[in-house]
Amino acid sequence: MKIKYLTSMILSCAILSGCGGSSSSSSGTSTSTAAKVAITSSNQSTISNSAINQATQNLVGSNLSYVGGVQTTTTPTDERFMNKWTDFAFQKLTESKSTPLSVSGAVISTTQCTTSGNIQIDTDGSNTTTPTYLTIIFNNCVESGTTGNGTISLSNLTVTPNTSAPTSISATFAFNFTVSNSSTSAGIYGGFTIAATGIGSASRQDSFSGTSFNVKYGSQYETLTNFAFVSTYNNTGVSHGYSDTVNYSFASDVILAGFDFATINPLVRNYLDVKPRSGQVIITGANSGATTTKLRVTVVSANPNAGTMSGTVTLELSQNNGATYGSPVTKTWTQLAAGN
Question: pLDDT tier at 298 (50, 70, 90 boundaries)?
Answer without folding.
Answer: very high
